[in-house]
Each structure stands twice: as structure tokens, then as C-alpha cells.
Design brief:
alpha+beta; OB fold (Dihydrolipoamide Acetyltransferase, E2P); 5 domains; five-stranded mixed sheet; 7 helices
Amino acid sequence: MFRFSASRSYSHLLFAGFVVVVASYGCGGDFSPTAPSLTQQPANGGSFGSESSAVVSGYLTVGGGSASAGYNGGFGAAVTPSAVGGLTITVQGTTIKTTTDASGNFRLVNVPSGNIVLQITGAGTNVTVTVQGVGANQHVVVQVQLGPSSATIVTDERTELQQFNSVVTLVALVDSLNGTVGLIDGTTVVVDDFTWWDTGGDYFNLMDLETAVLEGKRVEAKGQGTPDEFGQILASVIRAKLTEEEFEGVVSSASVSGVDPDDGTIVLVANLKGGVAEVRVDGATVWDPNGDLTSFDDLFAAFTKGLLINVEGKGALDTMETFILAGEIKAELEERDFEGIVSSATGPDADGVGTIVLFSNDKGPITTILVDGDTVWEGDVSSLTELIAALAGPFPVKVEGEGWLAADETFILATRIKVEIEDEDTVCDDRYATQVGAIDDLIDLVREVAEKNGLNGGQTNAFVSKLENAAKSLEKCNATPAANQLGAFINQVNAFVGSGKLLTADGVLLVSAAQAIINAINAAG
């Protein structure tokens, strides 16, 4: 490692040697540096940056700086270049200490200003040396020469430190610890392997910092160091802090970014947290599992359906302060209930979406209900087609359920709908009693066939529910819905036979029985 001089040019990016730095972090905020190349045990729990604190660095030489001087200095053997390595240097009167590297370099942090007594111990030596009059905002460069029973400061050069505090716009790497950081105010900060990365920041090496900047994140670099003749600052301490911002609001638009389904752009009607309204998500964004939407794919699908979506979270602000790259996000829909008598129904369209209009909604002002392939049907009918057929009958059709509110609050997209054909005031004779009994027998046959073919409970219930709904419809003299439900049963049986889940012979048996009931219903009128 080259030795450092206060007059040395830093244009080669490498900090040649160790220095003594006395620091006052007047730019605000306490610094808590991470462990540098040299092991440090800071006092006060590693809290840095009081006005009286200092960073003390330097390097040791032996007998005039030459290993050939022959001085053993209490090391127990003739001195070699490694004799200055592995020694402990302590600031007397404090718990601040460090260990020199193989070349004798050392660094001490959080050192009080004033006259500083350094005690050097290890490998049989125990000497002290005093650095006189260390002041705030000084950069002190010392060379300490070890003698047989004493230590002497050979050189002591001092300059003023310069502070920096601005947004990072560019990182140029030599390697992960050496390079330059360009700031938006035009300052160039030189970072090397002896620069102290503050633990109060979010990044602790140039490689990670460069990645963040390339991702467009707004990172503030704050610290101080030694200015050179080129106007650069050789950083002794740097804090690289990500600028985070919260967001909350209703989604105005959503668009896919590129080919990755995790990447997208969300624009809010307004950011209720007062920041920018554009939020970007990517594969690193964490979606709250307690939200209604747990991926951008889910959110985009909900947006294309016209639903009201609320999002909240936080993330990194970009360099130009135009968007937030979300680190975490929660997306929720707004649920609404509905209940009323159906006035009309249309659909489904090419996308499988149908519309149900109520005379009035007992649960709120919205009377338009949309249904799609994800809607769960309960009650007397099991599809929009059956509901439309029921509307052609003599009885009122009542629906109730819940769903997601539209962004413009003009409709509810039903997640669940229960349909009841209102026939309490109508006397239904027993003309379909035989057919109802036949359906009960068919249900028993289904259970036997299901067990024989190894169907699970869900698959069996899917068959049985259609037959039970058909029986309920017949009990209310609703022949057309009952026939439709039996037709749906036949379609499902044929699908299971085609996929090999049911034996062909068993499928023929079930279809024949269901078709016979349909024929009997039609004959009964």
C-alpha cells in the first residue's frame, strides 16, 4: 500500500495509506460507520459524528522506516516488515481501539478532539505517542516511527475537511470498493477501500450503490473528506441513503412494462401522502398477502375490469423525483352488497361477462350487477343462462350477494350471487313429483359411480349440486331451469368420460337416466 501525503493527487482513485481525520459532521445527523478494512471497536456503541469526535488514522514504521534497521523493539526477534502488523492501538482514556494491518496501517474513529495519546501494544511492545492539538474538521496525516521503548511522530500534515451532501447521479467503478461517485450538484467524490461506509445508510459498497442508481433510485450521499487540486473530494466517511417515500391512493391507470409480468406502472388519481403519483413495481416488490390483489398481474386484471383499486405502500424515489419504485405494496378492492328483484338480464358476451339489472338494490344505490366466469352461483339457478330462462317464467327472480365496486361506481362485479325464484304466493301442484323422485334416485346412483371411479368429494359434489338444484326447481314448478340444470349435469358427465375420469359405461348410465328425466319433464308440460 502506498503512503498518503496531504499534497498527493487522488486522480488515480486509490487512497495511498492511512490518515488521521478529525471530523465534525456539521451537515447534520450522526454517522455510524461500518467496519473498514481495519478492525475497529468504536466507543459509544458505534455512534459517530459529535462535534468533538475525530477519525484517527496513520501508519507505523520501524527504526526510521526501514526494515533493515535491525531494531527488534521488544518484538523478540529481528524486525521484519510484518513486525508493524497486528499491533493494537488504543486511545488512552477511552475504549476506542483498532488493530494494524500487515503494513502497519490503522484507523481509529470517534476519537475526542484535543491532545490524543495513542498506546501501541502487542508482540512484546508497549509504547505511547501523542498527537497534539487535534481540532474539528481537520485532516491530520501522521507517520509514527517505533523505537525500542518509545514512538515518535515523524510527519504531521493537516488540511481542512470538506463536506458533501447531494443526490447521486453516477457511479464509476474500479472495483466494489474503489471508484468515483458523481453528485447532482457537480461534486465528484472519490471512494476507496479505506473510505468509511456509514451504517446509517442503505448501501455499503460501490457495486450496490451503482446498481441502485442504474435502477433509477434516488440515493443521497452525505459525508466528508479531503479536497484535491482537481476539485474532487476523497471521502473519509460516506453515508449512502435511499430516499424512500410513501404512497396511498386510488389507481387511475395501470400498464405493463416490458415482457416481465411482474413489471408494471401504476398511476394514482392522487397520492394522499403528498408525494408523486406514479408507482412502479417489479420482481423485487413485495405484495402484501393480506391484500385482495397479491401481484401486478392480479392488479392489472382488476383494472381492466374497471374495478376500484386502492393501493398503499412505500418505496424508493427516483433520481428525478418523478416516480416511486415500490418496495412493498398492498392492493385492496372495495366490496359492496346487493339484494333485489331482477328487472332484466343480458349476456354473457364474448368475454363471458353478463349484466343483471335490479328494480332496486336494498343494500345500496347501485342496481347494475355484472357476473363473469369467476362468479360463484348459489340457489335455484347456477348460471346467467338459467337466470335469463327463469325470467321468462311466471315468478319473480330475486338475487342477493356481494362483489367488487367499479371505479366509476356504476356497477358491482359479483363474486357471489344467490338466486331465488319467488313463488311463495303461487301454488305448485305435484305434476313433477315423479321426476323429483327420479332425481333423488339419480343422486344415489351418482354417489355409487363416483366411489367406483375414485372421484374425490369435490368432483362428486359438483354432480350432486346440479341435480339438487334441478329438484328444487321442479318443486317450484320451474321446469325450464330444471331441464337446463339436468343438461349441465349431462355435459359434465360427458367431460369426465372424455378425460378418462369416468368409465364410458358408467357415463352412458348416468346420461341415459338424466335424459329420461328431461323427457319426462317436457312430457308433463
